[in-house]
Every structure is written in structure tokens, then in C-alpha cells.
Specification:
With 139 residues, the chain is mostly beta strands. The protein has one helix and twelve strands; from the N terminus they run αββββββββββββ. Helix content is 13%, strand content 47%.
């Protein structure tokens, strides 16, 4: 009987541990401004660096706000942050889906490279809820 009880308790602990969110992830939210104005649409990515374990996690920026729930998991520790959004440049380019000679507005990366592909922004994510706000100058 003691062996059966021990097996049941072990199974219960393993089952409960498997159903909870990873303790190595955290909730992250905040605002993203570009030259003081809310970013209408974009994305934010947190990529573990400097010994932080876990997968990268990201979310959508909408009307200057983003929220990444713990279930989608930003790794606790140091994370490089990449921000992406596009804007029209004022120029025209060949429409890739159109016939030759059909032009469309050129769209370019709104954030400077040091905030996306060559990001130098690193944030320390703590267990629990984190708020990171960004106001990125382009000038």
C-alpha cells in the first residue's frame, strides 16, 4: 500500500509540474514610441543573451502597446530587444505582385538598425510581471 501511495504522489507532483508555465519565463508589456509618437503597428522580440537560457519570444505592437503573456514566455534574464515597424519613404518601387510598370509606395524600416537587426538594447527580465517602455529617436 505504501508503494502505491508513493507512486500516486510522485505521479501527482509530476503531472502538476508539467501543467504549469515554465518558471524560467515572465510576462512583459509596455509602450513603444517612435520620436514620441505611438507605433501604430510593429513587432517586438526578446532574444536571450549572455548565458540566459530559453527561446526567444515576441509580440505585436498595436497603437503603441505590446503585451507578451507568461504563457508565451520571455526568458528570465538578459534579453536583447528588437523592434520592427515599417513606414512609407515617399518613394515608389515596382509592385512585386503587379505587372511591369505598376508601382507601389516604398516601405522602409522605421527604427534605426541599433533597435532591430543590430540591436544594442538589452533588458534584464525578472520573474513575474515586467514593464519596459521604449521611446526611440530617429533623428
Amino acid at each position: 500500500m505504501r508503494t502505491v501511495l508513493g507512486c500516486l504522489l510522485t505521479a501527482a507532483v509530476l503531472w502538476q509540474g508539467g501543467c504549469s508555465s515554465s518558471p524560467g519565463t515572465a510576462e512583459v508589456s509596455g509602450t513603444v514610441l517612435l520620436d514620441g509618437q505611438p507605433v501604430e503597428e510593429g513587432s517586438i522580440q526578446f532574444i536571450p543573451v549572455e548565458g540566459t537560457k530559453g527561446a526567444g519570444a515576441g509580440g505585436i505592437i498595436k497603437s503603441g502597446n505590446y503585451h507578451i503573456p507568461r504563457d508565451n514566455g520571455v526568458a528570465v534574464g538578459r534579453n536583447r530587444v528588437e523592434l520592427r515597424s515599417f513606414r512609407t519613404s515617399g518613394g515608389k518601387v515596382q509592385d512585386p505582385t503587379g505587372a511591369p510598370g505598376v508601382f507601389t509606395d516604398e516601405r522602409v524600416q522605421a527604427f534605426p538598425p541599433e533597435y532591430n537587426d543590430n540591436s544594442t538594447v538589452v533588458k534584464e527580465v525578472q520573474s513575474g510581471r515586467n514593464v519596459f517602455d521604449f521611446d526611440v529617436p530617429t533623428k
